[in-house]
Design the sequence.
């Protein structure tokens, strides 16, 4: 009974936070991105240009959006609108990372759109190997706490990041920071959803997500 009451409280809090969640990102660059996506020829050209413009990203995020560093997120398959919004936030200083801010500030508007489209349209690798023993528990927790925002397949949308196929160290670090409030980004939804998680729960969720395609 106590567990049900706790769960009900979590879902009620998440529901309230969802109601306060902002709309999909808008702005001239988002409109340009939509226009390019609607034109097959323009999209192909933008993706090719994006590969060149993103060359400075490859040292950390990998040539095809699969990170070379376990603590750095994969970008392949992320929603282009979500990526473009994160690029904007780094450029404006809303997201704090001195290295990322410095790199993004020199990008032209067209290059920002092209990079978002390149990584967003990069093929995602098949599911990454995980600890099969904890995957069922991770799936159960993800379904209970995370599906409502990140979706059944953990692929997110224009405002919510893709978590499927991310590397375990990155997932564990990010989820732990949201739970403990120690990261540079604060998010009410994530704080609520992760508040009850133990360290082993976080590892289980990370193992479940990393093996999703």
Sequence:
């Amino acid at each position: 009974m106590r567990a049900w009451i706790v769960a009900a409280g979590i879902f009620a809090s998440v529901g309230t936070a969802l109601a306060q969640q902002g709309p999909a990102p808008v702005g001239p660059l988002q409109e340009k991105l939509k226009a390019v996506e609607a034109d097959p020829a323009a999209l192909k050209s933008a993706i090719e240009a994006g590969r060149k413009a993103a060359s400075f990203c490859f040292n950390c995020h990998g040539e095809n959006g699969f990170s070379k560093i376990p603590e750095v997120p994969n970008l392949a398959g992320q929603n282009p609108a979500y990526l473009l919004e994160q690029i904007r936030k780094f450029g404006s200083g809303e997201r704090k990372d001195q290295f990322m801010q410095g790199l993004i500030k020199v990008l032209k508007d067209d290059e920002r759109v092209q990079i978002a489209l390149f990584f967003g349209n990069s093929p995602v690798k098949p599911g990454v190997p995980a600890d099969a023993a904890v995957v069922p528990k991770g799936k159960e927790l993800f379904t209970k706490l995370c599906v409502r925002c990140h979706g059944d397949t953990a692929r997110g949308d224009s405002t919510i990041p893709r978590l499927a196929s991310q590397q375990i160290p990155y997932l564990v670090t990010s989820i732990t920071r949201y739970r403990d409030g120690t990261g540079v980004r604060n998010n009410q939804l994530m704080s609520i959803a992760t508040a009850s998680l133990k360290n082993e729960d976080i590892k289980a969720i990370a193992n479940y997500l990393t093996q999703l395609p």
